[in-house]
Fold this sequence. Notes:
By secondary structure, this protein is mostly helical. It has helices at residues 4-7, 40-48, 62-86, 93-109, 116-140, 144-165, 172-197, 209-240, 247-273. The longest helix has 32 residues, at 209-240. The protein is globular, with a radius of gyration of 22 Å.
Amino acid sequence: MSNPVFSNSAVFGEPRRGAGGTATAPAGQAGRFGAQAADAASLQNMYNAPSATPVDTKRLTYTDVIMKTAGLLSLLVVVAAVSWSLTETIPSLWIIGMVVGLVLGLVNAFKKNPSPLLITLYTVAQGLFLGGISRYYESWNDGVVLQAVLATLSVFAVALALFSSGKVRVTPKFTRFLLIGMIGYLVFSLVNVVLVWTGVLEGWGMRGGTLGIIVGLFAVVLASMSLIVDFDSIKRGVEQGVPAKFAWSAAFGLLVTLIWLYLEILRLLAIFRE
């Protein structure tokens, strides 16, 4: 796994296996069959009843994930638009959103059970952050934000299409490459930030010029691969019949990856223009 929202969740992970390689049953399930005999009338009623759907059993469905994700994205865009308009009058607003969003992101990522309230607050904080930083990028490069939004949506659509077609599968080799790549990228980014903040490097630091373009493209590839892993985690959760409340976790995980992808594309386009 790459996205901590999914990798730290037991419900979206691989099913546990017993010593013989077979899936183990949940605790308390063994020995329940046959403990209570049903009469003929009850059996006949059960046979004639329509099959229960995931909605009836309150299990996770793709519709749940789509609706929750669409709702969070809509809220994100609205808050970002407000933050965009307030950037000149309240310059520090996007910085507050960045800090609060980081804290809430970590809290939500490591919670065993999703909190709709905390996830919503995270979305609001990220909207404040994205609106402000996008306004600054736009002031330097006219039209770059629209290009970044369209590029992000395009990458998302391509990643979803590739995953749905089965042409790209999440294999151990796939996840291992993604994990190594993300760790390397994180270390590189931290070193670059320290060098820029301490005045050793100026401007974009190591993120500028040809090296910056190469690193930016690599980051976009990593974010795209992370999206595919997210899709695979959601698919596994639906197939395993996890509770419907985890649609919030799935939507939050997708939102985290999409925000990362958008920021990388926005930075990459700005470097290209320079």
